[in-house]
Amino acid sequence: MQCTGGTPCEACASRRSPCVYDASSDQRRKIANQRNVHELAETQVQLERHKQLLGGMIATIRAGDFDANSDLIRVVRSGVDLSQLAAHVRNECRSNVSIQQAYEQIDFCIDGPLELPSPTQVLGEIAPQGDAKSSTSDAPEVNSEPFQPDIWRNLNRES
Description:
By secondary structure, the chain is an all-alpha fold. The chain has a domain at 10-108. The protein has seven helices and no strands.
């Protein structure tokens, strides 16, 4: 029987002998552990890249002008792969100080329940107090009109 890794392992337990294991001499486990550490490091790098992409997209939406947001939407909808999208977002962030500053202010910590609130709930929480409409329902009203980019253009001109 082979060692199953328990204390005592099944082989030693069935023979009723002391279970002595020298982990440093077992190269199979050492190599497997090194491979796991390498895979975790690669995963961490990928997660960091995804975080930078997400942050850049959020910063562009928050601080970018109409053209920056239109370009971002166009690139996303074009179906490019993530590395091309990341290059676009990175270039946009580097060329726009407002977007850089918005990126630096993002708190990437997600607290709370695993289930995220619906867009309706989020928009209801951030609605300006003066614009609150009285309603018998606790849920905020949702505008069912289609997205109109001209609205964003007008907002950017006013600021």
